[in-house]
Write a structure and sequence with these properties.
The complex is a heterodimer of chains A (about 475) and B (about 100). Chain A contains 20 helices and 2 strands. Chain A has about 475 residues and is mostly helical. The radius of gyration of chain B is 17 Å and the shape is elongated. The N and C termini of chain B lie far apart (about 50 Å).
């Protein structure tokens, strides 16, 4: 392995090195108060290194592929993880986490390694390994609060549904192997001719992957896991894990299953309609903010599917762009919810009545995040949704556009409920003033800057579009 | 490849095995039995890979390799799942899936 190969897979190698360094530090230090600072510093360096330009290439006999679009996807995930790490400081420094602070970061970074391998996979074996490295430790993270009932409940629901979904997906892969005789993406795609067995395999495969993105009707684990897991882990689930799954989903649909496009478009159409509608309808009646954000993230996944149905390059670019904006907006919302729930353990919407009077800055950040999720113009979320909708329109699916527009309107109602609670509802005993710690503040500032700027950076969208032609 | 046993028979067996696993996962209430059902599904997939490899594409070994990885990852999965089940038992004093219902819609 020479230096160019190293540069090609630098994301994974650097993250592995980070895991090893953290393990060594853990061995040679007596306490773990500084774990979060070490993790943040190391990960910040890795994020910066990720932006070093690199070429396209294939190593390990075609099992590992990388190009500019994949590198961009990994960088987007890195930015999201950096924000999550900044937010985690508050929760991890609590006394009940003493003695297991390093483990949290070790597990978190290992799942990120898995996601990076998954995005760069060049054959189904690598893809499966990446997926499992990304999903098994995540269950351990969900059950991280050992003595809290809800947390272990979330963990068991996560691991069983993850195992079940990967078994379903593997069955699809095995049938695909039976028809094609190879596992390499580049060799499979010309051999796909749409015979019955291949379509069956595709359906199994898609249902397994839909579990990971939590598309309706494969979403039942999502709200429980999101509510039960520690808030930091929930924000990791809802943006990073979902974002990585969406990225590989779109890569596979447009490379391996390209010949099945007339078969998969109706499937995705149906999934998009179901996901948007069911996610929205359930979000309407949620009182717990974490559960509310879980259903809103299901609905957002439905919007993401719109871009996949749309025309190829612009659709792909709009999905990547939307995920970037989604990371900022969801992490802004989760950041505030996490700070409040760590300090006061209040999570319902009613608790936020009169929040603006005591915590004007936090409530403004939460408002911006929710506005962006709803897609209200000055914030970035509007542009993300706009590009998704326009890619559907250019593909000519006007009914789908109509349903999506209705759903966007419905979502406006429930996203404004917490905003109304914070700014308008009266409350004699609002949540007292919260002094969040500096790293959490930094995370929120990054999110707000991202929310306000990415929408107006037209260069960014053009850049992503130019990369999307490479796939 | 086994003399006298056609590919179709083995595929029928693995498909049956897979759906018995799905059925068990959906109907069983004990967490350990649910985990065992998942293992059944994974084993069906593993046999599928080996059989396709041996009968249809004996010139390379990709199916066999995949099976080895499936088995080892299934072991890792079971380790994490059982650890979590033990933790659930400590907190809730039950491994019955129906009674792990603190969170509901």
């Amino acid at each position: 392995m020479n230096i160019t190969d190293f540069l090609l897979m630098r994301h994974e190698l650097l993250l592995t090195a980070m895991v090893l360094i953290m393990l060594l530090i853990q061995i040679f230090t007596s306490n773990d108060y500084n774990a979060s600072y070490f993790a943040m510093a190391l990960f910040f360096i890795i994020t910066v290194f990720g932006f070093v330009p690199s070429e396209k290439g294939e190593i390990f006999g075609n099992m590992y592929i990388t190009d500019s679009l994949r590198v961009l996807m990994k960088n987007i995930l890195n930015i999201g993880v950096l924000i999550v790490l900044f937010q985690s400081g508050e929760w991890i420094s609590k006394p009940h986490n003493e003695g297991k602070r390093y483990e949290f970061y070790l597990i978190l970074i290992s799942t990120l390694i898995g996601m990076n391998f998954m995005i760069s996979a060049g054959d189904f074996l690598m893809f499966y390994l990446g997926l499992e490295i990304a999903s098994i430790p995540l269950a351990a993270l969900a059950a991280y609060d050992k003595y809290r009932t809800k947390s272990s409940e979330a963990g068991i629901k996560m691991i069983l549904s993850a195992a079940f979904s990967s078994a379903v997906m593997l069955f699809g892969i095995s049938l695909l192997y039976g028809t094609c005789g190879t596992l390499y993406f580049s060799e499979i795609s010309p051999q796909i001719n749409g015979n019955i067995l291949q379509i069956l395999a595709f359906v199994f495969f898609i249902s397994g992957l839909a579990f990971k993105i939590s598309l309706v009707p494969f979403h039942f684990w999502t709200p429980d896991v999101y509510e039960g897991a520690p808030t930091t882990v929930t924000s990791y689930y809802s943006v990073i894990s979902k974002g990585a799954a969406v990225f590989i989903f779109i890569i596979l649909l447009f490379t391996v299953f390209k010949n099945l496009i007339s078969q998969w478009q109706p499937i995705i159409y149906l999934l998009a309609v179901l996901t948007m509608s069911v996610g929205n309808l359930f979000a309407l009646r949620q009182q717990n903010l974490k559960r509310f954000l879980a259903f809103s993230s299901i609905a957002q996944a439905g919007f993401i599917l719109l871009g996949i149905i749309g025309t190829e390059q612009t659709g792909m670019a709009s999905v990547v762009y939307f995920v970037l904006i989604y990371i900022f907006s969801n992490l802004a919302a989760f950041g505030v919810v996490s700070v409040v729930s760590e300090k006061t353990s209040k999570e319902t919407i009613e608790d936020y009545n009169g929040f603006y009077r005591t915590n004007p800055k936090l409530s403004l950040v939460l408002m911006l995040g929710l506005f962006s999720l709803a897609g209200i113009p000055p914030v970035a979320g509007f542009f993300g949704k706009f590009f998704l909708f326009s890619s559907v329109a250019s593909a000519g699916y006007y009914w789908l556009l109509f349903i999506a527009a209705i759903n966007a309107t419905v979502s406006l109602y429930y996203y404004l409920l917490p905003v109304k609670a914070m700014f308008i509802n009266k409350n004699d005993t609002p949540i007292e003033h919260i002094q969040s710690n500096p790293t959490a503040k930094t995370a929120l500032i990054i999110c707000v800057v991202g929310l306000l700027l990415t929408g107006f950076a037209g260069v960014l969208f053009d850049y992503i579009t130019s990369l999307s032609f490479g796939i | 490849m086994i003399q006298g046993v056609p590919l179709q028979h083995i595929l029928l067996l693995t498909t049956l095995l897979f759906f018995i696993g799905v059925y068990g996962f959906i109907t069983r209430k004990n967490l350990f039995t649910m985990l065992m059902s998942v293992e059944l599904m994974l084993n069906a997939v593993a046999i599928n890979f080996v059989v396709f490899n041996a009968y249809l594409f004996p010139e390379n070994l990709q199916g066999h390799f995949f099976t080895i990885f499936i088995v080892s990852i299934a072991a890792a999965e079971a380790a994490v799942a059982i650890a979590i089940i033990v933790n659930v038992y400590r907190n809730i004093r039950t491994v019955n899936a129906e009674r792990i219902n603190e969170m509901k819609h």
